[in-house]
Protein backbone atom coordinates (compact mmCIF):
# COMPACT_ATOMS: atom_id res chain seq x y z
CA UNK A 1 0.00 0.00 0.00
CA UNK A 2 1.38 3.37 -1.04
CA UNK A 3 -0.36 6.70 -1.49
CA UNK A 4 0.62 10.34 -1.88
CA UNK A 5 -1.00 13.65 -0.99
CA UNK A 6 0.17 16.94 -2.53
CA UNK A 7 -0.62 19.93 -0.34
CA UNK A 8 -2.32 22.90 -2.09
CA UNK A 9 0.66 25.18 -1.42
CA UNK A 10 4.38 24.88 -2.03
CA UNK A 11 6.23 24.37 1.23
CA UNK A 12 8.82 22.06 2.68
CA UNK A 13 7.35 19.47 5.03
CA UNK A 14 9.84 19.52 7.87
CA UNK A 15 8.17 17.23 10.40
CA UNK A 16 5.40 14.62 10.57
CA UNK A 17 4.12 12.69 13.58
CA UNK A 18 1.39 10.17 14.29
CA UNK A 19 -0.78 10.99 17.29
CA UNK A 20 -1.43 8.63 20.16
CA UNK A 21 -4.37 6.25 19.69
CA UNK A 22 -7.82 7.36 20.80
CA UNK A 23 -8.73 3.99 22.26
CA UNK A 24 -6.53 1.70 24.30
CA UNK A 25 -6.02 -0.41 21.19
CA UNK A 26 -5.38 1.47 17.95
CA UNK A 27 -6.60 -1.51 15.97
CA UNK A 28 -10.09 -0.48 17.12
CA UNK A 29 -9.75 3.09 15.80
CA UNK A 30 -11.52 3.71 12.50
CA UNK A 31 -9.44 6.86 11.94
CA UNK A 32 -5.74 7.55 12.44
CA UNK A 33 -4.55 11.09 13.19
CA UNK A 34 -1.26 12.80 12.45
CA UNK A 35 0.33 16.25 12.60
CA UNK A 36 2.27 17.98 9.80
CA UNK A 37 4.68 20.91 10.18
CA UNK A 38 5.87 23.01 7.22
CA UNK A 39 8.35 25.76 6.40
CA UNK A 40 8.88 28.08 3.45
CA UNK A 41 6.09 29.99 1.70
CA UNK A 42 3.44 28.61 4.06
CA UNK A 43 4.35 27.99 7.70
CA UNK A 44 1.74 25.69 9.19
CA UNK A 45 0.92 23.17 11.89
CA UNK A 46 -2.03 21.09 10.70
CA UNK A 47 -4.03 18.11 11.88
CA UNK A 48 -4.92 15.32 9.44
CA UNK A 49 -6.68 11.98 9.54
CA UNK A 50 -6.78 8.87 7.38
CA UNK A 51 -8.94 5.78 7.59
CA UNK A 52 -7.36 2.89 9.44
CA UNK A 53 -6.05 0.61 6.65
CA UNK A 54 -6.71 -2.43 8.84
CA UNK A 55 -10.42 -1.86 8.11
CA UNK A 56 -9.91 -1.49 4.34
CA UNK A 57 -9.25 -4.02 1.63
CA UNK A 58 -6.11 -3.62 -0.46
CA UNK A 59 -8.26 -2.56 -3.40
CA UNK A 60 -10.05 0.08 -1.32
CA UNK A 61 -6.75 1.45 -0.09
CA UNK A 62 -5.38 1.75 -3.61
CA UNK A 63 -8.49 3.35 -5.08
CA UNK A 64 -9.99 5.52 -2.39
CA UNK A 65 -7.45 6.12 0.36
CA UNK A 66 -8.12 9.72 1.38
CA UNK A 67 -6.76 12.34 3.76
CA UNK A 68 -8.99 14.66 5.78
CA UNK A 69 -7.58 17.96 6.99
CA UNK A 70 -8.75 19.38 10.28
CA UNK A 71 -7.60 22.35 12.32
CA UNK A 72 -4.47 24.27 11.36
CA UNK A 73 -2.39 27.16 12.65
CA UNK A 74 0.04 29.48 10.88
CA UNK A 75 2.92 30.44 13.19
CA UNK A 76 5.18 33.32 12.24
CA UNK A 77 8.28 31.19 11.78
CA UNK A 78 9.21 27.93 10.09
CA UNK A 79 8.13 24.78 11.93
CA UNK A 80 11.17 22.53 12.38
CA UNK A 81 10.01 19.79 14.75
CA UNK A 82 6.89 18.25 16.30
CA UNK A 83 6.42 16.11 19.40
CA UNK A 84 3.13 14.71 20.74
CA UNK A 85 2.65 15.11 24.49
CA UNK A 86 0.56 12.03 25.11
CA UNK A 87 -3.11 12.73 24.41
CA UNK A 88 -2.82 16.30 25.74
CA UNK A 89 -1.51 18.00 22.62
CA UNK A 90 1.54 18.63 20.44
CA UNK A 91 4.72 20.69 20.83
CA UNK A 92 6.09 22.52 17.79
CA UNK A 93 9.58 24.04 17.65
CA UNK A 94 10.39 26.90 15.28
CA UNK A 95 13.33 28.33 13.37
CA UNK A 96 13.43 31.32 15.75
CA UNK A 97 13.62 29.26 18.91
CA UNK A 98 9.96 29.41 19.86
CA UNK A 99 8.08 26.40 21.15
CA UNK A 100 4.30 26.38 20.85
CA UNK A 101 2.02 23.91 22.55
CA UNK A 102 -1.16 22.99 20.70
CA UNK A 103 -3.66 21.54 23.13
CA UNK A 104 -6.39 19.07 22.28
CA UNK A 105 -9.59 20.58 23.64
CA UNK A 106 -11.97 17.92 22.33
CA UNK A 107 -11.73 14.16 22.43
CA UNK A 108 -10.55 12.74 19.13
CA UNK A 109 -12.68 9.73 19.98
CA UNK A 110 -15.91 11.75 19.70
CA UNK A 111 -17.88 10.01 16.93
CA UNK A 112 -19.74 13.16 15.91
CA UNK A 113 -16.52 15.12 15.75
CA UNK A 114 -14.80 12.49 13.63
CA UNK A 115 -17.69 12.11 11.22
CA UNK A 116 -18.32 15.80 10.62
CA UNK A 117 -15.12 17.77 10.96
CA UNK A 118 -11.79 17.84 12.72
CA UNK A 119 -12.16 21.55 13.43
CA UNK A 120 -11.70 22.27 17.11
CA UNK A 121 -9.47 19.33 17.87
CA UNK A 122 -6.53 21.72 17.96
CA UNK A 123 -7.76 24.89 19.59
CA UNK A 124 -5.19 26.48 21.82
CA UNK A 125 -1.85 27.87 20.70
CA UNK A 126 0.19 28.49 23.81
CA UNK A 127 3.70 29.87 23.25
CA UNK A 128 5.82 28.75 26.18
CA UNK A 129 9.21 30.07 25.18
CA UNK A 130 10.51 32.94 23.07
CA UNK A 131 14.28 32.93 23.55
CA UNK A 132 14.83 29.21 23.46
CA UNK A 133 18.60 29.05 23.69
CA UNK A 134 18.80 31.21 26.83
CA UNK A 135 21.66 33.03 25.13
CA UNK A 136 22.10 36.41 23.47
CA UNK A 137 20.64 35.17 20.18
CA UNK A 138 17.67 33.08 19.19
CA UNK A 139 18.60 29.62 17.96
CA UNK A 140 16.43 27.23 15.99
CA UNK A 141 14.67 24.58 18.05
CA UNK A 142 15.70 21.36 16.32
CA UNK A 143 14.03 18.63 18.40
CA UNK A 144 11.71 18.02 21.35
CA UNK A 145 11.23 14.82 23.34
CA UNK A 146 8.42 14.11 25.79
CA UNK A 147 7.82 11.12 28.04
CA UNK A 148 4.93 10.45 30.40
CA UNK A 149 5.93 9.48 33.93
CA UNK A 150 3.40 7.74 36.16
CA UNK A 151 1.99 10.22 38.71
CA UNK A 152 4.62 12.78 37.71
CA UNK A 153 3.18 14.17 34.47
CA UNK A 154 5.39 14.80 31.45
CA UNK A 155 9.17 15.14 31.33
CA UNK A 156 10.07 17.33 28.36
CA UNK A 157 13.47 18.24 26.93
CA UNK A 158 14.33 20.25 23.82
CA UNK A 159 17.53 21.12 21.98
CA UNK A 160 18.68 23.89 19.65
CA UNK A 161 21.34 25.00 17.16
CA UNK A 162 23.21 26.92 19.87
CA UNK A 163 24.10 23.67 21.65
CA UNK A 164 21.63 24.10 24.52
CA UNK A 165 19.26 21.59 26.10
CA UNK A 166 16.21 23.05 27.85
CA UNK A 167 14.07 21.33 30.48
CA UNK A 168 10.35 22.13 30.31
CA UNK A 169 7.75 21.72 33.03
CA UNK A 170 5.12 19.35 31.67
CA UNK A 171 2.25 20.77 33.71
CA UNK A 172 2.90 24.52 33.61
CA UNK A 173 4.67 24.47 30.21
CA UNK A 174 7.47 26.78 31.29
CA UNK A 175 11.22 26.39 30.91
CA UNK A 176 12.83 25.25 34.15
CA UNK A 177 16.47 25.50 33.08
CA UNK A 178 18.84 25.33 30.12
CA UNK A 179 22.28 23.73 29.85
CA UNK A 180 25.03 24.22 27.28
CA UNK A 181 26.09 20.70 26.26
CA UNK A 182 27.95 21.18 22.95
CA UNK A 183 30.01 23.88 21.25
CA UNK A 184 28.10 23.25 18.03
CA UNK A 185 24.40 22.90 17.36
CA UNK A 186 22.32 19.96 18.53
CA UNK A 187 20.27 18.10 15.94
CA UNK A 188 18.12 15.58 17.84
CA UNK A 189 17.09 14.56 21.33
CA UNK A 190 15.40 11.38 22.62
CA UNK A 191 14.51 10.09 26.07
CA UNK A 192 16.33 6.82 26.78
CA UNK A 193 15.04 6.01 30.28
CA UNK A 194 13.07 7.93 32.89
CA UNK A 195 16.28 9.77 33.89
CA UNK A 196 18.48 9.55 30.80
CA UNK A 197 18.20 11.12 27.37
CA UNK A 198 20.43 11.17 24.28
CA UNK A 199 21.44 14.16 22.15
CA UNK A 200 23.22 14.33 18.78
CA UNK A 201 25.19 17.22 17.34
CA UNK A 202 26.52 18.88 14.21
CA UNK A 203 30.02 18.06 15.45
CA UNK A 204 29.38 14.31 15.07
CA UNK A 205 28.97 13.53 18.76
CA UNK A 206 26.29 11.50 20.52
CA UNK A 207 25.98 12.18 24.23
CA UNK A 208 24.04 10.31 26.89
CA UNK A 209 22.80 12.70 29.57
CA UNK A 210 21.64 11.75 33.07
CA UNK A 211 19.43 14.23 34.92
CA UNK A 212 20.61 12.75 38.24
CA UNK A 213 24.29 13.45 37.51
CA UNK A 214 25.96 16.70 38.51
CA UNK A 215 27.94 16.83 35.25
CA UNK A 216 24.82 15.59 33.35
CA UNK A 217 26.87 14.07 30.48
CA UNK A 218 27.73 10.48 31.42
CA UNK A 219 28.80 8.93 28.09
CA UNK A 220 30.00 10.26 24.72
CA UNK A 221 30.34 8.67 21.28
CA UNK A 222 31.80 10.21 18.13
CA UNK A 223 30.49 9.27 14.69
CA UNK A 224 33.61 9.84 12.60
CA UNK A 225 37.18 9.89 13.79
CA UNK A 226 38.60 11.73 10.78
CA UNK A 227 35.79 13.54 8.96
CA UNK A 228 33.26 14.95 11.38
CA UNK A 229 29.93 14.81 9.59
CA UNK A 230 26.88 15.91 11.56
CA UNK A 231 24.61 13.37 13.20
CA UNK A 232 21.24 14.26 11.71
CA UNK A 233 18.92 12.00 13.76
CA UNK A 234 18.87 9.33 16.45
CA UNK A 235 16.42 6.74 17.80
CA UNK A 236 16.34 4.41 20.81
CA UNK A 237 15.52 0.70 20.56
CA UNK A 238 11.96 0.17 21.89
CA UNK A 239 12.94 -2.46 24.47
CA UNK A 240 16.76 -2.64 24.54
CA UNK A 241 17.37 0.93 25.65
CA UNK A 242 21.15 0.62 25.45
CA UNK A 243 20.94 0.42 21.63
CA UNK A 244 20.99 3.77 19.83
CA UNK A 245 20.57 4.13 16.06
CA UNK A 246 22.00 7.21 14.36
CA UNK A 247 22.30 8.58 10.83
CA UNK A 248 24.70 11.16 9.46
CA UNK A 249 25.02 13.91 6.90
CA UNK A 250 27.24 11.73 4.72
CA UNK A 251 24.72 8.89 4.44
CA UNK A 252 25.87 6.49 7.16
CA UNK A 253 23.78 4.41 9.58
CA UNK A 254 25.32 3.35 12.89
CA UNK A 255 24.01 1.47 15.90
CA UNK A 256 25.66 2.09 19.26
CA UNK A 257 25.68 -0.33 22.16
CA UNK A 258 25.96 1.99 25.16
CA UNK A 259 26.23 -0.93 27.58
CA UNK A 260 29.36 -2.33 25.89
CA UNK A 261 30.60 0.99 24.50
CA UNK A 262 30.67 -0.35 20.92
CA UNK A 263 29.52 0.76 17.49
CA UNK A 264 28.65 -1.06 14.27
CA UNK A 265 27.79 0.38 10.88
CA UNK A 266 25.22 -0.64 8.30
CA UNK A 267 26.33 -2.25 5.03
CA UNK A 268 26.73 0.03 2.02
CA UNK A 269 23.67 0.92 -0.02
CA UNK A 270 23.95 0.13 -3.73
CA UNK A 271 22.28 1.53 -6.84
CA UNK A 272 22.17 -0.13 -10.25
CA UNK A 273 22.63 1.63 -13.60
CA UNK A 274 24.17 0.99 -16.99
CA UNK A 275 27.61 0.93 -15.38
CA UNK A 276 26.66 -1.82 -12.92
CA UNK A 277 26.24 -1.57 -9.17
CA UNK A 278 27.72 1.40 -7.36
CA UNK A 279 28.10 2.08 -3.67
CA UNK A 280 25.71 4.97 -3.10
CA UNK A 281 27.55 5.82 0.13
CA UNK A 282 30.37 7.20 -2.03
CA UNK A 283 27.99 9.99 -3.02
CA UNK A 284 27.61 10.98 0.64
CA UNK A 285 23.87 11.59 0.29
CA UNK A 286 22.55 12.66 3.71
CA UNK A 287 20.21 10.54 5.79
CA UNK A 288 17.66 12.79 7.50
CA UNK A 289 15.73 10.52 9.87
CA UNK A 290 15.94 7.07 11.47
CA UNK A 291 13.50 4.88 13.42
CA UNK A 292 13.41 1.41 14.86
CA UNK A 293 10.32 -0.43 13.66
CA UNK A 294 8.72 -1.21 17.02
CA UNK A 295 6.48 -3.97 15.65
CA UNK A 296 9.53 -5.60 14.10
CA UNK A 297 12.58 -4.37 16.07
CA UNK A 298 14.99 -6.27 13.82
CA UNK A 299 14.37 -3.54 11.25
CA UNK A 300 15.63 0.04 11.11
CA UNK A 301 14.07 2.47 8.61
CA UNK A 302 15.88 5.56 7.32
CA UNK A 303 14.99 8.33 4.85
CA UNK A 304 17.39 10.33 2.73
CA UNK A 305 18.07 13.38 0.59
CA UNK A 306 17.63 11.39 -2.63
CA UNK A 307 13.99 10.58 -1.84
CA UNK A 308 14.61 6.96 -0.84
CA UNK A 309 13.05 5.24 2.15
CA UNK A 310 15.28 2.34 3.16
CA UNK A 311 14.79 -0.63 5.45
CA UNK A 312 17.84 -2.20 7.11
CA UNK A 313 17.56 -5.62 8.74
CA UNK A 314 19.81 -6.54 11.59
CA UNK A 315 20.18 -9.16 14.28
CA UNK A 316 21.50 -8.98 17.80
CA UNK A 317 23.98 -11.53 19.10
CA UNK A 318 24.45 -11.80 22.85
CA UNK A 319 27.04 -14.58 22.49
CA UNK A 320 29.78 -12.76 20.63
CA UNK A 321 30.68 -9.83 22.85
CA UNK A 322 32.82 -8.19 20.18
CA UNK A 323 29.92 -7.74 17.75
CA UNK A 324 26.66 -7.27 19.68
CA UNK A 325 24.88 -6.18 16.49
CA UNK A 326 25.21 -7.78 13.08
CA UNK A 327 23.46 -6.91 9.84
CA UNK A 328 22.19 -9.94 7.95
CA UNK A 329 21.07 -8.33 4.68
CA UNK A 330 21.36 -5.26 2.54
CA UNK A 331 18.75 -2.57 2.49
CA UNK A 332 15.48 -2.59 0.60
CA UNK A 333 14.25 0.61 -1.03
CA UNK A 334 10.54 1.11 -0.45
CA UNK A 335 10.07 4.56 -1.94
CA UNK A 336 12.23 6.26 -4.53
CA UNK A 337 11.54 9.80 -5.64
CA UNK A 338 13.19 12.92 -7.00
CA UNK A 339 12.94 15.03 -3.84
CA UNK A 340 14.25 14.72 -0.32
CA UNK A 341 12.30 12.85 2.36
CA UNK A 342 12.95 15.09 5.35
CA UNK A 343 11.08 13.32 8.12
CA UNK A 344 9.11 10.17 8.80
CA UNK A 345 7.12 8.44 11.52
CA UNK A 346 6.11 4.79 11.72
CA UNK A 347 2.67 3.92 13.06
CA UNK A 348 3.56 0.84 15.06
CA UNK A 349 0.10 0.15 16.45
CA UNK A 350 -1.80 -1.18 13.45
CA UNK A 351 -1.21 -4.45 11.64
CA UNK A 352 -0.37 -2.84 8.30
CA UNK A 353 2.48 -0.96 10.01
CA UNK A 354 2.48 2.18 7.85
CA UNK A 355 5.14 4.87 7.65
CA UNK A 356 4.33 8.56 7.13
CA UNK A 357 6.86 10.70 5.20
CA UNK A 358 7.24 14.43 4.57
CA UNK A 359 9.11 15.73 1.52
CA UNK A 360 10.67 18.88 0.09
CA UNK A 361 7.92 19.17 -2.53
CA UNK A 362 4.90 19.71 -0.23
CA UNK A 363 3.95 16.01 -0.49
CA UNK A 364 2.91 13.55 2.21
CA UNK A 365 3.76 9.92 1.45
CA UNK A 366 2.11 6.96 3.14
CA UNK A 367 3.57 3.47 2.75
CA UNK A 368 2.99 0.09 4.37
CA UNK A 369 6.19 -1.52 5.63
CA UNK A 370 4.55 -4.92 5.32
CA UNK A 371 4.29 -4.61 1.54
UniProtKB/TrEMBL annotation:
Q: Which keywords does this Swiss-Prot/TrEMBL entry list? A: Nucleus, Repeat, WD repeat
Q: Which domain of life is it from?
A: Eukaryota
Among InterPro entries, the record links this protein to: WD40/YVTN_repeat-like_dom_sf (IPR015943), WD40_repeat_dom_sf (IPR036322)
Q: Where does the protein end up?
A: Nucleus
Coiled-coil zones: none
GO CC annotations, alphabetized: nuclear pore outer ring
Main localization category: nucleus
Q: What is the protein name given in its UniProt record?
A: Anaphase-promoting complex subunit 4 WD40 domain-containing protein
Amino acid sequence: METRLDLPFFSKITSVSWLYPNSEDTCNDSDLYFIVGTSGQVKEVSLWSVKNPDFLSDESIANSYSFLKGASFNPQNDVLCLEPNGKLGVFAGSSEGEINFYQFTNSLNDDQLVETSLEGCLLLENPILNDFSASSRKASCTAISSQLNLNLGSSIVACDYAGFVSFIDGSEFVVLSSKDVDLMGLTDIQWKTSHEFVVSSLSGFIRIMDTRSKNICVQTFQENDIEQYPVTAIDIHPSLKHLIASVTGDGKLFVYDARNNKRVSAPPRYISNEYGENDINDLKIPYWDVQFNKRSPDNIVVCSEDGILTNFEYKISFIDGSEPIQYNSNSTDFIKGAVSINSMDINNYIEKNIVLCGTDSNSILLRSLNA
